[in-house]
Design a protein that fits this description.
The protein has one domain (about 5-260, about 395-480): Amidase signature (AS) enzymes (Alpha-Beta Complex). About 40% of the residues lie in helices and about 10% in strands. The protein contains 15 helices and eleven strands. It has helices at about 10-15, 25-40, 50-65, 105-115, 155-165, 180-185, 220-230, 275-290, 305-320, 340-350, 355-365, 375-395, 420-425, 430-435, 465-475; strands at about 45, 75-80, 120-125, 170-175, 190-195, 215-220, 260-265, 295-300, 400-405, 440-445, 450-460. Strands 1-3-2-4-6-5-10-11-9-7-8 form an eleven-stranded mixed beta sheet, with helices on both faces. Helix 5 packs parallel to helix 6, helix 9 (about 305-320) crosses helix 11 (about 355-365) and helix 9 packs across helix 12. The radius of gyration is 21 Å and the shape is globular. Bound molecules: glutamine. The site of glutamine has 14 residues, from strand 4.
């Protein structure tokens, strides 16, 4: 029998409805699982068992009175430790926020409470979400459940690994340049980066504000739909939040009027893509062709500049967003300071890791008055070109299919000494953030050594329901979402 901790949120919700299990029992099962695998996986930075049990108990009481809040009532969910949860640590994976306790809830956190979900622990990440392997966390390394010698991807590596190994059925992460889609792919689960403005960023510690979006992780697309339903929608506390109608994502998964034209950009299948990954993704394309989709070759010429454009704009925003951590207002203050300047200097020197420092320096440089036009302004112009490429493509196709990452997960240490190599991990994901579009990654196979492979679907802005339904079609015809790592 399939272990309970590998069941999807929807299956667990059915069990709760049928009263074959209670929410408290469910939490106990996930706690037991977490205790068993956590020494090897290390996905969690903190876990408040008492709080989770209290919430689960409240869910059971509601159910007994027939007052269930919705399909996620009683379902445990893990949170990337960069999304605020009142009374819980909010480290952002950084030493500079060590011992910091969030005084407020993010909008998504509030919405999860309103949906009755049980918040289950804070998950590891690269410092301030900067990285592709979770190795930039100041606290610990999270291991890929498929092979412990490999990284889980990043920056939301804790979220992806925790879902993959059955510590939680669903989790939230954040995606600035691929940090939901790439770790989901590395761990063989699904992950969605919503359209910019669909999910409120209030309470998400900012990395690069024009690119950041909170996104869900799950074993399957149905659960992504359920979770997106809860977190999506306008919020007046985020000025970039959009007033748009939120459809019933779960219901629309079986949409007969599904879009039928899939674009395959030639730039995404050129050198740099691992042969095994390419072959596996071509099989996925073949699946869609056989199922009545038209496969259309397209070109996104400016996508070649996506990485430099992203690393210019993102670092500029990072340098500005991280300026607030100065050891004075609320971040950790160096104990060794003697004067005001020292407080800034030493607190930041001791508090930030090397990747954060690299990006702050780079970002300060591209924003400096001497270089602004040559780098930052130019990058903004290229960003517009990239957006236009997508807009043109979407005149001829409904969704775009591409790899999600250039290869499968890599070993610890393999790319840490070579930042450029690490940055290339994002080559297929960053353009989606630059253009503000939704992207989803879906598992589609395994490499010869048993590491998961996934592909990415990119949609029109605010067309998440189309994207989810095209992805769902693939997943129900295959059983990759029912493959689980063996942790014996
Ligand atoms: N890996 C990318 C980076 O290092 C993306 C990070 C993210 O999406 N948060 O910037």
């Amino acid at each position: 029998m399939e272990e309970l901790f590998f069941k999807s949120a929807e299956e667990l919700a059915q069990m709760l409805t049928q009263k074959s299990i209670s929410a408290v029992e469910l939490i106990q099962i996930f706690l037991k699982r977490t205790r068993a695998v956590e020494p090897k996986i290390q996905a969690f930075l903190s876990l408040d068992e008492e709080k989770s049990l209290r919430q689960a108990k409240a869910s059971d009481e509601r159910r007994a009175k027939g007052q269930v809040f919705g399909p996620l009532d009683g379902i445990p969910i893990g949170m990337k430790d960069i999304i605020a949860e009142k009374g819980q640590p909010l480290t952002c994976g950084s030493k500079i926020l060590e011992h910091y306790i969030s005084p407020y809830d993010a909008t998504v956190t509030e919405r999860l409470y309103e949906a009755g979900a049980v918040l289950f622990g804070r998950l590891n990440l690269d410092e301030f979400a900067m990285g592709s392997s979770t190795e930039n966390s100041a606290y610990q390394k999270t291991h890929n459940p498929w092979n412990l010698e490999y990284v889980p991807g990043g920056s939301s590596g804790g979220s992806a690994a925790a879902v993959c190994v059955g510590e939680v059925p669903i989790a939230l992460g954040s995606d600035t340049g691929g940090s939901v889609r790439q770790p989901a792919t590395c761990c063989g689960i699904t992950g969605l980066k919503p359209t910019y403005g669909l999910v409120s960023r209030y309470g998400l510690s900012a990395m690069a504000s024009s690119l950041d979006q909170i996104g869900p992780f799950a074993h399957n697309v149905i659960d992504l739909a359920l979770l997106l339903q809860v977190i999506a929608g306008y919020d007046d506390r985020d000025s970039t939040s959009c007033k748009t109608e939120i459809p019933n994502y779960r219901q629309l998964l079986k949409n007969d009027r599904q879009p039928r034209r899939i674009g395959v950009p030639k730039e995404y299948f050129s050198e740099g893509l691992d042969g095994e990954v390419r072959q596996t993704i071509e099989n996925a394309i073949e699946f869609y062709r056989k199922n009545g989709y038209s496969i259309i070759n397209i070109s996104l010429p400016n996508i070649l500049y996506a990485i430099p454009t992203y690393y210019t704009i993102m670092t500029a925003e990072v340098s500005s967003n991280l300026a607030r951590f100065d050891g004075i207002r609320y971040s950790r203050r160096s104990p060794k300071t003697t004067n005001a300047l020292d407080i800034y200097f030493k607190s930041r020197t001791e508090g930030f890791g090397s990747e954060a420092k690299r990006r702050i320096i780079l970002g300060t440089y591209v924003l400096s008055s001497d270089h602004l036009d040559a780098y930052y302004i130019r990058a903004q112009k290229v960003r517009t070109r990239i957006r236009e490429d997508f807009a043109r493509a979407f005149e001829a196709v409904d969704v775009i299919l591409s790899p999600a990452s250039p290869a499968t997960a890599f070993k610890f240490g393999e790319k840490m000494d070579d930042p450029l190599q690490m940055y290339l991990e994002d080559i297929y994901t960053v353009a989606v953030n630059l253009a503000g579009l939704p992207g989803i990654s879906i598992p589609c196979g395994f490499s010869k050594v048993g590491l998961p492979i996934g592909f990415q679907l990119i949609g029109r802005a605010f067309h998440e329901s189309e994207l989810l339904s095209v992805a769902h079609q693939f997943e129900i015809a295959h059983d990759f979402y029912r493959c689980f790592p063996n942790m014996a």
